[in-house]
């Protein structure tokens, strides 16, 4: 079986009747949402979903999953989401699909955060995957200059027509081609303090469980202790 599908199905086992579930975004989370939809149809599972992007909202609505916004719930029991890279100390980079802002908000209010990935996402150090930074359009070229001056190799993410890609919140994404992030916490703190930066794709100390799909050993589940 496709490794993304394997972990998507496995992760849906963590969803129990009555839960409020954060529904992640991307090609791996897609299979988790499909499996929750199947369990609702075939097993009578009843949940409330909180989506992390317009794309997931559309998918979940089409499956008939009842949805609430993050502001309508007092907490989320569990959020299940993909990741672009996970380091050996279980920090991650997210936002390859430009959904990092809502994903980080939903994960912040979740009791548990489960990441589902195929084995190609597991790395020793973060940074080979370009780090997405969501910025407001106003002043974004100034941020590009600032990132350049720090040697962060920034590129505004663009659509096929050359225009900047717009996130669900109508912001831009600047991808930082860092190759290796020596100190993710220092970089996250610095980015948190730059005017015009809305959010960045460093998700540190957020995952409580990581489910990895491997071709030789099947599904591996790691409970992260912090
Ligand atoms: O913005 C997108 C999200 O952070 C995704 O969860 C991440 O990019 C992983 O996506 P995929 O499962 O498609 O590789």
From TrEMBL:
Active-site residues, Swiss-Prot/TrEMBL: 103 (proton acceptor)
InterPro entries documented for this protein: NagB/RpiA_transferase-like (IPR037171), Ribose-5P_isomerase (IPR050262), Ribose5P_isomerase_typA_subgr (IPR020672), Ribose5P_isomerase_type_A (IPR004788)
Reaction catalysis annotation: aldehydo-D-ribose 5-phosphate = D-ribulose 5-phosphate
Chain residues that bind substrate: 25-28, 81-84, 94-97, 121
Keyword Endoplasmic reticulum: no
Keyword flag Methyltransferase: no
Keywords: Isomerase
Gene3D superfamilies: 3.30.70.260, 3.40.50.1360
Pfam families: Rib_5-P_isom_A (PF06026)
GO function terms (MF aspect): ribose-5-phosphate isomerase activity
GO biological process: pentose-phosphate shunt, non-oxidative branch
EC number(s) stated in the UniProt entry for this protein: 5.3.1.6
Biological pathway: Carbohydrate degradation; pentose phosphate pathway; D-ribose 5-phosphate from D-ribulose 5-phosphate (non-oxidative stage): step 1/1
Family named by the database record: Belongs to the ribose 5-phosphate isomerase family.
Assembly with partners or alone: Homodimer.
Function summary: Catalyzes the reversible conversion of ribose-5-phosphate to ribulose 5-phosphate.
Protein name, as recorded: Ribose-5-phosphate isomerase A
Gene: rpiA
